[in-house]
């Protein structure tokens, strides 16, 4: 029997959340085709509003990798390896008994919901600074997470 539990310390801190959110925001921004070289304040505010909803909704697709002890690498998009293996076993006819009903296997976990909640709070609190990072093409992660929130840097090089 596989037992999965969430320890309080395995939930994302606001700093870890900020880093994940900043990376997701940057990824969403890079997906925009025909982004002008110079971005006006109005365009930056429009982009912020457009991206904010997607970014926070995307937090629900993040999962916790229990094999990694700390840092933002614990959070990834997709299906955890253990769950993928359980599904493969189930598909081969192996009876799986767990405390979590099968219909909840793919539902967002508490860590994903907390990432989404942190996302909404961070984007609301630091909207003006994030808009400035869009205009100036500077790092959300540095200006919001490191400077404003006083978080440690979770990255090894500029993202």
Automatic annotation (TrEMBL):
The keyword Signal applies. Keywords: Signal. The keyword Transmembrane helix does not apply. Residues 36-146 form the DUF3456 domain. It comes from the Eukaryota. It holds the Pfam family DUF3456. Belongs to the canopy family. This is DUF3456 domain-containing protein. It comes from Strongyloides stercoralis (Threadworm).
